[in-house]
UniProtKB/TrEMBL annotation:
It comes from the Bacteria. It comes from Streptomyces spinoverrucosus. Keywords: Hydrolase. Gene3D superfamilies: Bit1. GO terms for molecular function: peptidyl-tRNA hydrolase activity. It catalyses: an N-acyl-L-alpha-aminoacyl-tRNA + H2O = an N-acyl-L-amino acid + a tRNA + H(+). This is peptidyl-tRNA hydrolase. Its EC number is 3.1.1.29. InterPro entries: Pep_tRNA_hydro_II_dom_sf, PTH2. The keyword Chloroplast does not apply. Pfam families: PTH2.
Length: 235
């Protein structure tokens, strides 16, 4: 299985994708003062939000978002997570997009926009400082469902990790045959995001499963392996 083609949007090496107009997929996580979501739930909800956007009829064929999605996928795949609360969140909800809800998290995903063309309601939102915790350790991942494994040796802010989980989910989506895509979508995109232990991580990175290498725009060095997408249908 080839999971990292030479023109992969998740590799750090220069490619033809760099000369295309650059777009970004905006995601906004709701973080109300005094009631933040759990970190793992926010990561999982962000990953599902990316899948919901990719599979939405408005993103396909002649849908109203389809051209923006194609332009985004033809260039480097960038995702940026910002945070909002109160009136900021209400303004974000008024823009075209899709809100995906987890156990404690709400994430709104928007159709891709030019890198320097964010709507003003989103451009003013903070991107840094999106830090979240898990009140309790996450339960062990169900091996029968897709798991997005995070590199145990890399520390990332919650916002950065949300974007990376979204990258992993997107790679899995691309690799799946149509029948498996439909089954995953119809089931509501069940998935887990977990930090791999070092031994498991070593096996995962040589398993042939889809692997995200960060382009190095923020926080971590270019070429860093951040996520392995372990979908049962790809094992």
């Amino acid at each position: 299985m080839t999971t990292e083609p030479t023109d992969s949007p998740f590799r750090s090496e220069p490619s033809a994708r760099d000369t295309a107009p650059q777009f970004v997929l905006p995601l906004v996580v709701r973080i109300e003062k005094g009631a933040p979501p759990a970190r793992t739930d926010a990561l999982e909800t962000a990953a599902r939000a990316v899948l919901v956007m990719l599979s939405d009829e408005r993103s396909l064929g002649d849908g109203e978002w389809a051209q923006a999605v194609r332009d985004w996928q033809d260039a480097r795949i960038r995702k940026v997570v910002r945070r909002a609360r109160g009136a900021e969140w209400r303004r974000a909800e008024a823009l075209p997009g899709i809100t995906v809800t987890g156990k404690s998290a709400e994430v709104r995903v928007f159709p891709p926009v030019p890198l320097d063309g964010w709507p003003k309601e989103l451009a003013r939102l903070q991107v840094s400082g999106t830090d979240l915790d898990d009140p309790e350790p996450p339960v062990e991942a169900d091996a029968s469902a897709p798991v997005l494994w995070l590199n145990p040796e890399i520390e990332m802010s919650a916002g950065k990790a949300m974007a990376q989980a979204g990258h992993g989910a997107q790679l899995a989506w691309w690799e799946l045959p149509d029948e498996e895509r439909a089954a995953w979508r119809d089931a509501g995109f069940p998935l887990a995001v977990r930090i791999a232990d070092p031994t498991r991580w070593g096996r995962l990175t040589t398993s042939g499963l889809p692997l995200v290498r960060d382009a190095g725009y923020t926080e971590i060095p270019a070429g860093s392996c951040t996520v392995v997408a372990d979908h049962p249908a790809l094992r």
